[in-house]
Design goal:
By secondary structure, the chain is of the alpha+beta class. The chain is about 15% helix and about 35% strand.
């Protein structure tokens, strides 16, 4: 269930909500509050042999399934800057090239609340150097040739859709 539909009170004046419609329209104070999607980013990072770096998710949603280096965009941050930051935080790598691939809507269940997310995907390369995972976020990393990837093992529908777009651009 989207977060705003479970809010029982107006966040400005605390008036009880008679309905749970989106956008929130408070009859007491006139506040109109939209429930826009959060933005997530992810990167298909390939090496010289064509293998793609997948992460293994350490937490739900999708614990144990394949993910991508990436995460949520912070306020005031571009998608590209967020991707660079998330890659540094999660795998200790530095991106040398970033190319927009596609975007796809997603739902992200966290702590019992469904968040609408717009996931933005990129193809990227890494600068040489040792990678080190953040064990709180990532259970491991796997370099896989495209033929080795089982789409059913990819954590999110948006990521599976982006994987197909990524594959369609391969020679």
């Amino acid at each position: 269930m989207p977060w705003m539909t479970i809010a029982a009170y107006c966040p400005r004046c605390a008036a009880p909500r008679a309905d749970r419609a989106i956008p929130l329209r408070c009859p007491a104070c006139g506040l109109v509050l939209f429930c826009n999607a959060a933005v997530g980013v992810g990167a298909f990072i390939a090496d010289a042999s064509g293998r793609v770096l997948f992460t293994v998710r350490a937490k739900d949603p999708g614990k144990g399934l394949l993910g991508l280096p990436g995460g949520f965009v912070d306020a005031g941050e571009s998608a590209e800057d967020a991707l660079r930051r998330e890659v540094r935080e999660e795998i200790g790598g530095t991106l040398t090239a970033i190319r927009y691939l596609c975007s796809s809507p997603n739902r992200y269940l966290y702590a019992g609340v469904d968040y609408d997310v717009l996931d933005v995907f990129f193809a990227a390369t890494l600068a040489p150097g040792e990678l080190q995972t953040d064990a709180d976020e990532i259970a491991g990393m796997r370099w896989l040739h495209p033929a080795e990837v089982d789409p059913a093992q990819i954590a999110f529908p948006s990521m599976r859709a982006a994987w197909q777009v990524y594959l369609s651009g391969l020679p």
